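> Could you send the AraC family transcriptional regulator prediction when you get a chance?

Sure thing. Input:
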Amino acid sequence: MEMRTRGRGRHRNRPFYAATTVHNREVAPAAYDYVKFLVVRSGQARLLSERDEYHVAVGDIAIIGPNTLCGAIPQESVSATTVYVNEDYVVDQLFWQHTDKFITRRDVIWFIETHYPEPIQLIRFGEQAVMSLSRILDELASLSEEGDSERRFHRFQALLSTFLDEVIPALKARNEPTDRAENGAQNSATLHRQIYRPTRPEARSVADQLRRNVSRRWTLSELAKSVHLSESQLRRVFIEAYGKTPSAFLTVLRTDRMADLLRQTDLPISRICREVGWEDPAYGSLQFRRRVGVNPQRYRRNYRLTQPVQSTTEAPCFSDETATKDRIPRPSFDQVVNQG
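Output:
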């Protein structure tokens, strides 16, 4: 038998899910639209991504980013528990954990993309350390299989928090923010359908085209032709993959790019709108406000109010230790948002 699986109950529309699997044959590459924490419980395998190859063994934890194509070749047999977490959930947790650093959830996404750009990060956690997590991992998989996500939600969330409390401090951040143009695969909108199955390659191809050129006037017809689907087929496949139409996906990409330019440049709002593909600044500002919650002018002003006097390349870390050196006192989150 190629694979035995535990934890494959009713898992649609959940912010998190866990499953324990045993593989003894090659696992075909697939991309998913959520963050995966793959904990190797026994055996060894090679993880294969589009760019790199990773050797994992018992005691290792591989953190695989959303929309990252990854397969595996077991060496004889490998057992692993995979914890799947919706990226929106991750962003929310980080936003509330670091309210002194972020104004909007878009700022959290930008921070993750620039300081954690690797699509796969490998943590040599250690066999004994993984064994200490066995009870948590087994209960997460068991709760996932039960399928009673509403009644046991807080129990699952508590277990997940305990798991992340052990794993997240081992993540390594880049102190120097990377150029996202060099990491286009990671410059993705936070769009998730919360269905735990691979993303269709046609949908990934269209999403990549949109990411590479957000300012272009795309039509559904040309996108459909590029992946050899009819317009209706592409619409259905794309919605299944990302929860939105290609047009709505492009709108999110454009507003995200606007947020980058508002933070990083002094360009006028009208020019920024044109840079991302909106000739009408009023329409672009409206779309930005719908997604971010404030208009572009206020977003730029609020962001600058929370910046230190002296710039620093030190990346905020996901721990209780926060860097305060060389920073002026910051207004509270409520004070900033409520400023007119």
